[in-house]
Amino acid sequence: MVADAQADPSELCEKSELSVGEVASRSGLAVSALHFYESRGLIASARNAGNQRRYPRSVLRRVAVIKVAQRMGVPLAAIAEALQALPAGRTPTVTDWRRLSARWRDDLDERIRTLTALRDQLDGCIGCGCLSLKVCPLRNAQDALAQEGPGPHF
Ligand code: FES
Questions:
Q1: Any ligand 1 atom below 6 A from CB of 136
Q2: Ligand 1 atom nearest residue 135's Cα
Q3: Cβ(131) – ligand 1 distance below 6 Å
Q4: How far is the CA of 84 from the centre of ligand 1 (A)?
Q5: Interval between CA 134 and ligand 1 midpoint (Å)
Q6: Residue 2 confidence (pLDDT)
Q7: What keywords tag this UniProt record (predicted)?
Q8: Given pLDDT bands bounded at 50, 70 and 90, which one contains residue 3?
Q9: Domain spans in the chain, listed from the N-terminal domain onward
Q10: Ligand 1 atom closest to Cα of 139?
C-alpha cells in the first residue's frame, strides 16, 4: 500500500477528496499542524467508511489563506472567527480574501505603529536602566499615574 504522502501528484488533481497526508504534502504543513487546525475549527474533514479523515479539495485554498494570515501576524482565533463568519463555512473566495486581507492589513498597520512607537521610546532607555516611574516612558507609559492625581499611588 502506498502511503498518502507519497501519492502521485497527477492523481491529486483528479480527486475531490484528499487524505490528511495528501493535504500535508500539497500544503507543506505537517499532519500534526492540520490536526491542530482542525481542533481549532479552522478546517473540517469527514470520515470515510474506514474512519479515515477526508478533506474536500477546497481545504488547500483554506490552508493557504490560514498560512498567509498567520504570516501577517493574525492570531489563529481571529482567523477561525473570520472563516466561520463566511456563509456555510465556505472557503474564502477572491472577494472574501480581498475583504479579509484589507481588514488584517489595517490591524498589521496598527501593530506596526504601536511597535514603532515602542521602539522609539526604547531608544531613550538603552544604556539607562533606571526604570523610573517618573521619567521612564516604558515603565510608566503615557504617564498613567499622573492621571490619578498627585501624591503616592503605591
Ligand atoms: S530605563 Fe531609564 S528612562 Fe527608561
A1: yes
A2: 3
A3: yes
A4: 44
A5: 9
A6: 41
A7: 2Fe-2S, DNA-binding, Iron, Iron-sulfur, Metal-binding, Transcription, Transcription regulation
A8: very low
A9: 4-92
A10: 4
Phi/psi of residue 94, each to 5°?
Answer: -60, -45
Cα–Cα dist 2/19, whole Å: 12
Q: Quote the pLDDT of residue 145.
A: 60
pLDDT in the model for residue 35: 96
What is the DSSP code string of 69-83?
A: HHHTT--HHHHHHHH
Cβ atoms < 10 Å from Cβ of 139: 13
Q: What is the DSSP letter of 84?
A: H
**pLDDT higher than 50, residue 1:** no
Residue with CA nearest ligand 1 atom 2 = 130
Parallel, antiparallel or unpaired: strands 17-18 and 53-56: antiparallel
pLDDT for res 153: 61
What kind of architecture, by CATH, is found in domain 4-92?
A: Orthogonal Bundle (1.10)
Nearest-CA residue for ligand 1 atom 3 is 136
Q: SS3 for 112-128, per residue? A: HHHHHHHHHHHHHHCCC
Rounded to whole angstroms, how far apart are CA atoms 21 and 38? 14
- Per-residue pLDDT tens for 77-86? 999 999 988 8
